[in-house]
Please model this.
Amino acid sequence: MPLPSKPAAVVFDLDGTLIDSADDLGAAANRLLAAEGRRPLTGTEVRRFIGDGSRVFVQRAWAATGLPADDSALDGLVPRFVAEYESDVAGNTRPYPGAIETVARLKAAGLKLAVCTNKPQRPAEMVLEQLGFAAHLDVVAGGDRFPYRKPDPRHLADTVSLLGATADATVMVGDNEHDMAVARSAGTGAVLVSYGYARTPLTEIDADALIDAISDLPALLGL
Model:
């Protein structure tokens, strides 16, 4: 489907789209792994494991470094991982070039703006506040705000509803296959960034547009 000719709202993914958070997520995971006598993750592994929420991230980390963790073990490990991450959510996390300026420009143009992320609500809000995004956002929908998360399209659909927008006037911007899949299922526009943490080759991801920098977004939307 074509992008809306006059978009009223933009919903952003967070990790890999607005911010490069791999170093801090990896550091939190590696502190937990060290406490359990396991080897650290490599940077490549960290980037490959990001995108499906904290529980899946820890599950992947455990499977990569020894015996996998069952559901009971994950119930204990995930809160510890989140606590480690919340202790330093932005020490080495940086906005991608032009990200804050782009979000501010879209807000100034009158668009409603949200973040829809599988990162838990509290650390998502923390990192957005610390990096300077929060003042420009109307809604933050973390991975535990609803009883479902991406790739379930209801995560995006309910985020759009919280904005008071309609899907056909909204654009989803993300870095991976799940972001574009939920956009398709929820009926929003779909813009893929060429950087970030996608696990699927970009040429195989269905999107309305591909941009190399987040700062290309306003022109793409006719702003």
